[in-house]
Amino acid sequence: MQKQFLEAPAPPDLRGSGLNVGIIVARFNWPITGSLLALAYEELVRLDVAPEQITVVHAPGAYELATIAQAMLSTPHHYDVLICIGCVMKGATRHDVLVGDAATQGIQRVALDTGIPIIFGVLCAENTQQAQERIPRGIEFAQAAIEMACTVQQLKYRNRQ
């Protein structure tokens, strides 16, 4: 086996300058989703995405994220990447499983159908404490968005040559 493949690859140089980023955030469980949004937004700006190139749209809940993502990507405005932020918590019924699965599949379908990367920033937690512990993931959502947007742009550029 090649030794070069056994080591983890170096982290990418994340620079979001010139990127147009859309964020869709669910209002349901706002103490969690609002905190995730704040961290993701701050990290995008830290990574050189201009605030005027970040569009934030709200959805009622995680279930509706894919519909809003599809609507955003069908407008004349070009987005390089979207981040969908939501929080689904376990309840007394299986509703959380249905909503989490629908959000996952819907968001993935929109990304694959459009070719625009969409970061899945939906927390699926057992309780509020578990969700709160995962709020720092908002930073990772932003970093993944920049990495994916840049990687997809590089691949498209290579294919044009």
From TrEMBL:
SUPFAM superfamilies: Lumazine synthase. Pathway: Cofactor biosynthesis; riboflavin biosynthesis; riboflavin from 2-hydroxy-3-oxobutyl phosphate and 5-amino-6-(D-ribitylamino)uracil: step 1/2. It comes from the Bacteria. It catalyses: (2S)-2-hydroxy-3-oxobutyl phosphate + 5-amino-6-(D-ribitylamino)uracil = 6,7-dimethyl-8-(1-D-ribityl)lumazine + phosphate + 2 H2O + H(+). 5-amino-6-(D-ribitylamino)uracil binds at F28, A62, Y63, E64, C87, V88, M89, F120. GO terms for biological process: riboflavin biosynthetic process. HAMAP family: Lumazine_synth. Belongs to the DMRL synthase family. Its EC number is 2.5.1.78. One of its GO terms (cellular component) is riboflavin synthase complex. The gene is ribH. Catalyzes the formation of 6,7-dimethyl-8-ribityllumazine by condensation of 5-amino-6-(D-ribitylamino)uracil with 3,4-dihydroxy-2-butanone 4-phosphate. This is the penultimate step in the biosynthesis of riboflavin. The active site is at H95 (proton donor). Coiled coil: none annotated. One of its GO terms (molecular function) is 6,7-dimethyl-8-ribityllumazine synthase activity. Keywords: Riboflavin biosynthesis, Transferase. (2S)-2-hydroxy-3-oxobutyl phosphate binds at A92, T93, R134. This is 6,7-dimethyl-8-ribityllumazine synthase. Pfam families: DMRL_synthase.
